[in-house]
């Protein structure tokens, strides 16, 4: 199963819910990454083979167009309404549905919202 790094902006109840769903998850704070630059957080996630779950859309840009082009894995939460149970359920379902794709090497960004999800992979 994919391992997760939760960014500082992910609600604590989402973190708890994902742990209850059985996901191996560490938070940015637990990892000593509180207040660090985005690039440092992504470097850490890549170094330890973690999927970064975040609400900060800057991470997607770093992977698709910026200094981390072609590196890193991010699940970007773009919900309009903070419904913890739905968000946890959606994350768990998406990660389980895409587990084979997510365990392959290579960068990607998954954008997850009330309307579903879409996966982007940088063009080689």
Strand content: 15-25%
Task: Give the CA-based shape.
Answer: globular
How many beta strands in the DSSP annotation? 6
Task: Evaluate the radius of gyration.
Answer: 13 Å
In the CATH scheme, the class would be Alpha Beta
What would you say this structure looks like, in words?
There is one protein chain. The chain is α/β, with parallel strands linked by helices and 124 residues long. The protein has one domain: Rossmann fold (3-Layer(aba) Sandwich), CATH 3.40.50. Helix content is 36%, strand content 23%. A six-stranded mixed β-sheet has the order 2-1-3-4-5-6, with helices on both faces.
Task: Looking at this protein, list some descriptive labels.
124 residues; alpha/beta; Rossmann fold; six-stranded mixed sheet; 6 strands
Topology, please?
Elements: E1 3-6, H1 12-20, E2 24-27, H2 38-47, E3 51-54, H3 58-64, E4 73-77, H4 84-97, H5 99-103, E5 108-113, E6 116-120
Parallel strand pairs: 1-2, 1-3, 3-4, 4-5
Antiparallel strand pairs: 5-6
Helix pairs in contact: 1-4
Task: Describe the structure concisely.
The chain is an alpha/beta fold and 124 residues long.
């Amino acid at each position: 199963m994919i391992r997760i790094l939760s960014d500082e902006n992910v609600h604590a109840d989402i973190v708890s819910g994902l742990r209850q769903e059985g996901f191996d998850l560490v938070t940015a704070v637990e990892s000593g990454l509180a207040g660090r630059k985005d690039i440092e957080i992504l470097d850490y996630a890549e170094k330890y083979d973690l999927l970064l779950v975040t609400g900060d859309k800057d991470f997607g840009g770093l992977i698709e167009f910026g200094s981390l082009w072609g590196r890193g894995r991010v699940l970007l939460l773009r919900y309009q309404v903070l419904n913890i149970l739905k968000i946890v359920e959606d994350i768990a379902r998406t990660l389980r549905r895409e587990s084979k794709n997510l365990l392959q090497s290579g960068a990607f960004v998954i954008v997850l919202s009330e309307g579903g999800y879409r996966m982007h992979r940088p063009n080689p």
